[in-house]
Every structure is written in C-alpha cells, then in structure tokens.
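Protocol step 4 of 6: record predicted structures for both targets in the notebook before any analysis. Target 1:
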Amino acid sequence: MEQVFSEQQMTQLEDFLLAHMEDEGCMPLDVAHGYLTAVLSGPHMIMPNTWLPNVLGDVDFASEEEAGQVMGLLMSLYNSTLMELESGEYEPMVLSMEENYDEPLPLPYGWCEGYIMGWNAHGEDTIDAMAQDEEAALNLGPVAAFMMYEEDQLLAPPNEAEHCQAADLLAESAVDLFRWWLPRRDNPVGRA
C-alpha cells in the first residue's frame, strides 16, 4: 500500500501537537488518530473546518508557513487513515509501556478517548445506533472496555492477558465499524 503519512511526518506532527498540548489544548497524536478514525468512519461527512479546531485546540501558529505545514501534516494523516480503513490494513496509534513487562503493555486509552470523541462528532445518536446493532456493538466492545478502567488500573490492568487481547482487537473493530457504516452513510467519505 502506498505510504501517505511517513515516519518523518508522524514525528513532526507529534512534536508539534505535544508542544502545544498543555497551553493551547492540542490533542496528542494517539488521541487525534483515534478521533480522525471515527470522523472518517461514521454516517456523516465531517468537514476539516469542523474537525481541525477539535484537534488543534486554540493553537496560535508562529507563521503562515507553520500553519500550512501543520495543516498539510494533518491532511496527510487524514488521507492515510482513510486509505488504511478502506484497504483493511489499519493500525491504531497505541502507546505502550515496556518497563516491568515481558512484552510491551499497550496503552490504548488516548486512541480510545479520541475514537469516542470522533463518534460523538457525528451526533449523539450515532453511538446509540451502533449499540442497538449486535454486530456494531460487538465492535465497540474493546473500546468501551478501556474507557471503563479506573485510574489506578491504567498502568496495572486487572487482567493483563485480556487487556492485550482487547488492544489487539482495536484495529479489526475500527475497520469493521468503518465498513458497517458504508451502506448507511448520507454522503461518501472523500479524500481531503
């Protein structure tokens, strides 16, 4: 599959978002990726002028050149995410922790938080519609599981094996929900 969003672009965007997260409310990259995944997957075409401010918060660009560069990076992420969902070769951006674990422990909370925010951008009834359909509800299950963790469980999950299994299901669930909505959309999703 053609690479739209390179590692270098990912690093540039991640650095920018992190630098502007605390003071200006930018989403971290994993949250932004989850958010865009749901924005692209739901029943409505959500235009960049709606989703960009949610990702960028109240950012104040240093120059028009910086604004253009960051917008270009976000549009590359958007288009790359759409291509991955369409091809079925999607991978969520999930952080991990290696310390004290035999295998890296996935920390999908940011991606899941962004994913739920993206569904909410389609309207309050969107998650309800998925919850009422058995197939869609099953695909929401892994995301919902991570959203129910207590704060002290985030780095010490109650069942590490089940935690890792649920994290492994996120990619397939995201692709399945993207496909579930395809015949139910009011507009086709297009490249930006």
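Target 2:
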Amino acid sequence: MPQDTDWEGLYRQTRHRIGNTMQMLLSLLRLQMRTEGPEARDALGRLEVRMSAAAAAYSQARVIADDGATLVVDFAAYVAEMVEEARRQAEPDPVPDVTLDLVPADIPLDQAIPLGVALTEVLVNAVRHGGGPLAVGLEALPEDGIWRLTVGDGGAGVPAAAVRGSGLGLRIAESLMRQVKGRLVLDQGPVLLEWPAD
C-alpha cells in the first residue's frame, strides 16, 4: 500500500535550504554594500529589501494538502511584516504611524512573492516621499472577483506618470503586478494593488 507523501516535511526541508541560500546571498550583499559609495549603497540597500520580501514569503508559507499540495501564505501576516520592514527603512528619520485593516487571506506562494515585493516598493515609496501616517488595507471584493491592497500616506498621492519617470521602484511594482494578472493603480490618492481572486 503506497504511503501518503509528507508534503509538510518536504516543504520544511526545502524552506530550510532556501532560507539558508537567501541568508548567504543577503550576507554577501551586505558585505558588498560596505565597500561601495553612498549611491551604490542606496541601490544595494533597495535590492536587499526586495530580497528580504521574497525570503519572508517563504518563511510565512505553509502547505495545504489537497489532491497534491498547495503552498499558501497567511497574507495578512505577510503584509504586516512588509509594513514593519518599510518602517525600518525610514530610520533614523521618525518612523511613521501605521494603521492596518487586513482581512484574513491565504494567497498561493507563487502569487505572494511578487505581490509582497510590489507592496514593499509601494510602502518604501510612501515612507520616503509621502510620510506618515500610513494606512494599509487588504480586502476581498467578491462582486468584482478581486483582492485589493490599499496604501495611503500623508502625501498628495502619486501621479500615474510617476511610473514612467525615473523611479525604478514603481516600475518594478507595476511589472510584478502584471505577473499576477493584476494592476497598480495610481490616481493622486491611495495606491491600489489589485489582482484576481481566483
């Protein structure tokens, strides 16, 4: 009689190996940052934040056994972790207050990684350019068949033309949202990240 596959055990082993690899890469990146000038250090620092966002998704993921196994991320907890990382990016400046309004959501890992990195880009932009207080919301819109993440800050909003400007962060966020068949909405108010619920 065939034995059931221990999906959770296999994933724990894989996550451990991925975590070790990510930590090694982050350590190498931090070493490189120490040898560079201020401009390169800033660029490498942004890369470190993006890598950390991807690594955090793996650490939050768990297995749901169905016909095979699905890896999902507790997305509300993941968003909260990305918000804290963005707040750390503000230091030594005053760290903005944040209000979270997040519904529970299990998002597949392959969606959670690009969504988390896109969210991190938007959050870091909000902290650096909009200032506090920040308001971050996650809601399901079943009538539209979408999930929506909302990021508001103390600034005047981001013009849609900003994506085509010199800022790499919002272009990365827009590209990542396309990967999940979603969109980044910039309309002079809170930034919206929307993607299909199925």
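Step 5 preliminary note on target 2. The beta strands are 61-64, 70-74, 98-102, 106-108, 134-141, 146-152, 183-185, 191-196. The radius of gyration is 18 Å.
Proceed to step 6 after PI sign-off.
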